Amino acid sequence: MSPAAELRAAARTLRALAADATRGPWSTLPGAANVWHFLSSDSDAGGDAAPVLVVPGVGVRLGNAAWIARIHPGLAEPLADWLEAEAKKVEAGTYTDLGGPFHAACHGRFDEDCSCFDEVLAVARVINGTEEETSA
Ligand SMILES: [Zn+2]
Questions:
Q1: Cis peptide before 101 (omega within 30 of 0)
Q2: Which pLDDT score, from 0 to 100, does residue 27 have?
Q3: Which of 43, 83, 119, 127 could be bridged to 11 by S-S, CB 3.0 to 4.6 A?
Q4: Domain assignment of residue 115, given as a range
């Protein structure tokens, strides 16, 4: 899969996951009997009326609950937009020569010398659940 395709796949995954989730922002509230309630403050999602997720709290670390709440579905669209914008940059700055894609800005092969998109590709690969994979 090309770098641009990896970035676009991650953007699609984020949008698909967010479409099936309750909109954010989310917050956490430890409830009775060791139960964590994840709440959405989005009025269309019912506000605080109904939790979007209820997790038994025994063994749940506060840090994990805070992390889940902060990385709510509201992050999907701006993150997907960024991934797609970076995909356009990859394509706009790419030329092919001698059997491989090269990045014009650094004159490096994407799979060997170019590190211009390492950070955004690392994000995409976490979302895609893939290992490092860049080829033509
Ligand atoms: Zn480069």
A1: no
A2: 84
A3: 83
A4: 3-14+76-128
C-alpha 14 to ligand 1 mean position (Å): 25
Query: Are 82 and 124 contained in the same domain?
Result: yes
State the burial class of residue 82 (Cβ atoms within 10 Å of its Cβ: 0-12, 13-18, 19+).
Answer: middle
78 CA → ligand 1 middle, Å: 24
Q: Each residue of 9-44: pLDDT tens digit?
A: 999 999 999 999 988 888 887 666 667 778 887 766
Q: How far is the CA of 118 from the centre of ligand 1 (A)?
A: 9
Residue 54 and residue 85 share a domain: no
Report the separation in Å between the CA atom of 16 and the middle of ligand 1, taken as the mean of its atom positions.
30
Is residue 41, in this structure, part of any structural domain at all?
Answer: yes
Residues 64 and 89 in one domain: no
The reply to whether 87 falls in a domain is yes
Distance CA 104, CA 94 (A): 6
